[in-house]
Design a protein that fits this description.
about 550 residues; mainly alpha; 3-stranded antiparallel β-sheet; 19 strands; globular; signal
């Protein structure tokens, strides 16, 4: 069985030369131990981590204070946009905010972040060429494209990814419309034999006939909109490159079928395994498990070192480079694990959930449908709905449906609710009582002196004033503090405190609303049928998907 190998691999990955004690936690324990702190009343719509996230967002939002509303590429958290900062930003840098900023707006109830991110997307979309293509870099003040190569890879990739994921997470059909419009031009000008080239955004002529390793995210995005046939054909092309070298080089020249000069490295990128995981969840094709195993074995054979996993400097001879990118842990290993761990909670399809109390009434979270941001951090869309939903009086009343359950075929409404409601009525009452008490008990963790406290170099430098004795006392236990104590340290707050001209995010937002430079299509905003996928054809549902490649 391959799954035990996967488990062993991850175990070795995270505990090399570390002795750890094992304690088994129930799901309730894990809920209570979220981030090692007490949960405030109203969580997840409230809490110290959410306040910190909003604090960071307020420091970043100044980047959007431009003529077009498209953001600068660099922000100093202390002083704002650096003096002399270039106005040229890559397309992905402009278009990769909506998932995080939309989430923040839905959780906090402040529309600022979502509206600012949407305005940037509208501005970017408005600056497409007459062919419907977007370039690679744009001047955020003038709107002039400074790099006019159009592609789906480096400098552009997560823009397309966030159009799809943002539409799903935030239920915004207009984002999906933008993606479909962009995809029409992509298929017309970039696509050649299920590869995607780089072309001139104004002329449509091929400028760079290469496959970039970053392109490999595309089949995964197509799977999210139900385009599994096209996605599988493209994925087969990418997997063939992997089989040729054991890895995918940063650039692969398609006509010459060879790695690009000075672009032969593989920095443990996640995009290919990401698409494989998504497509396997969509199709169940066993070919994808084999492709995932190929990736796993290549990394284990050629990338493993005594202290981690190294970048491959040259895919042709598998020489290692003395570095490991952070996305290897946050993305590559995660997608590999999720491919083979079919029972992971991330794959929950609504079979169970957790009932919580919010200002809008009882709400169910942890029911699945997680949306990953571009760094593979999962976001629960149900949590957003719990905080952003309608008032309790306006919620759908299932009791009214029970009176007319004869109108429905199959299971009765009561039976259907029983399958999705994982808590009994008594359990639900207990949740309500706990919420009213405004305290969620946190279980202290005793690690029995068996785990050495990790030392972070940056934090150690910042906290030089902290005595060594104090750190030694805390090295073997987890200290639980009150919610009020979980704030930015004073020294950190002083470092980040803003000085000089006062920037008003609200004034900037009002300016965007007033100017309305990029009118919105109200028809697009209400076309919710775009957020559903067609069922697969009958023959595809009863056959092994990987056997069919013909268009």
């Amino acid at each position: 069985m391959l799954l035990p190998l996967i488990h062993k691999w991850f175990l070795l990955l995270f505990i090399v030369k570390i002795t750890c004690a094992v304690r088994t936690y129930t799901k309730d324990d894990l809920i209570k131990l979220r981030a090692g702190m007490k949960l405030e009343p109203g969580w997840p719509c409230n809490g110290p981590l959410l306040r910190l996230a909003e604090d960071v967002a307020k420091r970043l939002i100044v980047a959007f204070d431009t003529k077009t509303g498209m953001p600068y590429g660099t922000v100093n958290l202390h002083s704002g946009v650096p003096k002399g900062e270039t106005t040229v930003t890559c397309t992905a840098g402009v278009g990769t905010f909506i998932v995080e900023f939309g989430t923040l707006s839905r959780l906090t109830g402040d529309p600022l972040y979502e509206e600012v991110a949407m305005n940037a997307l509208y501005a970017l979309f408005d600056h497409r060429s007459q062919l419907g293509l977007l370039g690679n870099h744009i001047d955020i003040d003038s709107g002039r494209w400074t790099a006019q190569d159009a592609g789906i890879g480096s400098g552009v990739d997560s823009y397309f990814e966030y159009l799809v994921k943002g539409s799903i997470l935030l239920q915004r059909p207009e984002l999906m419309e933008m993606f479909y419009e962009a995809r029409k031009s992509i298929d017309k000008y970039l696509k050649r034999d299920d590869w995607y080239m780089w072309v001139s955004m104004t002329k449509g002529q091929i400028t760079l006939p290469v496959f970039q390793s970053l392109d490999a995210f595309w089949p995964g995005v197509l799977s999210l909109i139900g385009e599994t046939s096209n996605a599988m054909r493209t994925l087969h092309n990418y997997h063939q490159v992997w089989q040729q070298y054991g890895f995918t080089p940063e650039f692969y020249y398609i006509p010459q079928t060879k790695a690009g000069t000075n672009k032969e490295s593989y920095p443990l990128r996640p995009e290919l395994i990401e698409s494989i995981m998504y497509l396997y969840r969509a199709t169940g094709d066993p070919y994808l498990l084999q492709a995932g195993e190929d990736i796993l074995r290549s990394i284990q054979h050629s990338s493993k070192t005594p202290c981690g996993y190294a970048t491959i400097k040259d895919v042709r001879d598998h020489i290692k480079e003395d570095r490991m990118e952070s996305f290897f842990l946050s993305e590559t290993t995660k997608y590999l694990y999720l491919l083979f761990d079919t029972d992971n909670f991330i794959h929950n399809q609504g079979n169970y959930g957790t009932i919580i109390e919010t200002a809008n009434g009882q709400c169910v979270i942890d029911a699945g449908g997680y949306v990953f941001n571009t760094e593979a951090h999962p976001i629960d869309p149900a949590a957003l709905q719990c905080c952003h939903g309608a008032a309790k009086s306006n919620l759908f009343n299932f009791k009214d449906l029970e009176k007319n359950k004869a109108l429905f075929r199959g299971d009765t409404i009561h039976q259907r609710r029983s399958q999705t409601n994982t808590s009994s009525e008594k359990a639900a009452e207990n949740v309500t009582v706990e919420a009213e008490q405004a305290v969620v008990e946190v279980i202290p963790i005793d690690l029995n002196n068996s785990i050495a406290k990790a030392q972070d170099t940056d934090s150690a430098n910042q906290s030089a004033s902290v005595e060594e004795d104090d750190s030694e006392e805390d090295s073997n236990t987890t200290t639980l503090v009150s919610v009020e104590e979980i704030t930015l340290p004073d020294f950190f707050g002083n470092i980040l405190s803003s000085k000089g001209k006062v920037f008003s995010p609200q004034e900037m937002l009002e300016r965007f609303r007033r100017e309305n430079k990029f009118p919105r299509n109200t028809t697009w905003e209400n076309n919710y049928k775009l957020l559903s996928c067609k069922a697969q054809p009958f023959l595809q549902r009863i056959s092994i998907f990987g056997e069919f490649f013909n268009k």
